[in-house]
Amino acid sequence: MSIKRIVSVGLLVAAAAFAGVWVRPTEAAAMARDRLADGRAAIAHIGAAGAPAAPPPVMTPTPQSATSGPPPLLPVADRSFNAALLPGYAAYLIMAGLLAGACAWVARREDGVGPER
Amino acid sequence: MRATYHPVAWLAWLAAAALPALSTRNPLYLSLLLLAVGVTNLTLGRANPAARSWGTFLRFSAWLWLLTIPFAAFMSHYGTIVLFRLPASWPAIGGPITLESILYGFTSGLALITLLTIFATFNIAVDQARLLRMTPNFIYQAGVVAGIAVAFVPQMVASWQTIQEAQQVRGHKVRGIRDLLPLLLPLLVTALERAMQLAESMEARGFGGQSVTGTPRRRLANQTAILAGLAALGIGLTGLGFWPHWRVWGSLLVAGGVLLLLWSFWDQSRRVKRSRYHRWTWQRPARIVLAVGLASLAGWLAAWLLRPAALSYYPYPPDSPWPVFDPLLGLPLTLAAVPGLLLQLEKRPRATELSREAG
Q: What ipTM did this prediction achieve?
């Protein structure tokens, strides 16, 4: 058994041990949000009893999971890409580009291949 | 080259870099912070033994990060953007594989590796002796123990690399698990020898001897103050947590408990004598690092307290999977690169002077 195999198996075991830690909050948070969304939808429905009939929220079934219970219904919010995000992304690209350039410059200098040495 | 800035300046840098890594999951902010910390990390030198040992640790964390993505994707099946489906009969991993779960795994791993890189950089910049010197006088013994414990893993990794290189020079090759014995045995012997040397040197310096002086009455007053302070703190926090109308009394109890504890610690520290043979000086770059660190910390803290929604990111419904980026919030993160750039600027004149001398 080579070192690589031992390391690979070790990594897999470690990741399996950590999986529960990462996945559990995900499921718990998602379930809490599901319940919140269901509650909000129900309140909106009750509140609209006396008022003129409001259009019901668009409901869609969440994809069924093998490990979870019956699929909850989620109101679909506008989750598509918004063009208002573009200026922020442009600023991010400039900042990240500058920092990546600084990283490359430092790495070149530390390796002693830069023009300064 | 080891950075020689004042440890307090590095502490400010650590706080300014660690707070964003702990308070947001937005991948754009986290990646920007990782790049900025990377500049400082690279500057501190890869030839440094401490940097090499932490480099191994970071490589392991990078592998762990790559594993978080498939694990989150296969184990969590929430989300609406379905990429593909696995048969539902497959235990645990069966079901839809969503883009949201992949994004969640990616951001979780990114936060983890960013935090580890920050602490690795801090540990390379400020060595164990400096950290030990910063512990308050009244807990210096606990500080020594903690310092030794913190340095254990990096020292083991450095020893492992040294032994590996020495065995490679002798022509040793690792082909199977049995070939690990010539590496593990010297590692064990080195660790035992180091432990013995450490114990002897601590004994020779009188570690663990009676250093706290004072009358029995004074010691009793200190112990009573600690007990009363902790009790007040516990009752006050419980009151604030469970009975909202207890707000004034709870706050007063908490404040009183903290004051009592601080007084007791200060009084104990006053009576412990420590020798210091080298005085730390505040140079201009260290002051710049401190000022930049504090400014960055204040900026991020203000955003965290006043606009927490701007920092949050959650790819699952009903939130959007598209992260928001505000350049004003990104700016404090880029300041984490300042120590690295300052050190580079310091190196340059030094190299020029050396070349002049050689000429």
A: 0.72
